[in-house]
Amino acid sequence: MGGEVIPFRRRRCPRAVAVANQVTADRAALHAELTTGDDGPGCDRPGCTRCGDHPLTSAEADAALEHVSDTDAQRYAAGALRFTNFTLCDQCLAWVPVFAYKPGATEGT
After folding, report:
1. Within 10 Å of residue 97's Cβ, how many Cβ atoms?
2. In a 3-state reduction of DSSP, which class is residue 95?
3. What pTM does this model have?
4. What string of DSSP letters covers 6-71?
5. Comparing 10-19, 39-48, 61-70, 78-87, which segment has the lowest mean pLDDT?
6. Contact 22, 74 (CB under 8 A)
7. Predicted pLDDT of residue 44
8. What is the tens place of the pLDDT at every residue in 12-59?
């Protein structure tokens, strides 16, 4: 025992890896939905060009997803939540998606 460090090979739990991969896929699906289609954040300010009826840019969607929890991303992908509108974050001025539970869905879904 001369103070030699014996490397410990860390194994990753297959379940944890699967959950992490699913969360990544759920977030990617939500990102894709935010950046496609004709619905944008929209607003009622006259002459506003930032909020028109256009999908978010990739950078805007990245910033928006910073405000979405993994749980909400998973529930949205599972169909328990529906997207209703955007609000504007007063700290970073990013669009924040607002979700509501679909009829018949519960918080535990």
Report:
1. 23
2. strand
3. 0.69
4. PP--PPPPHHHHHHHHHHHHHHHHHHHHHTSSS-------TT-SSSSSSPPPHHHHHHHHTTS-HH
5. 39-48
6. yes
7. 56
8. 778 888 888 888 999 998 898 888 865 555 555 555 555 555 678 899
Residue 32, token pair as written in the block: 């894709």
Distance CA 5, CA 101 (A): 53
Give the integer Cα–Cα distance in Å for 50 and 52: 6
Both tokens of 21, joined, read 């991969």
Q: Phi, psi (5° rounding) for residue 88?
A: -105, 125
Residue 47 contacts residue 61 (beta carbons within 8 Å): no
Average pLDDT of the chain, as a whole number: 80
Which tokens go with 99? 């979700």
| Those residues with Cβ within 8 angstroms of residue 109's Cβ, 6 or more apart along the chain or in another chain | 75, 78, 80, 101
Domain assignments of the chain as residue spans, ordered by start: 14-101
Place of tokens 């860390």: 10
DSSP 108: T
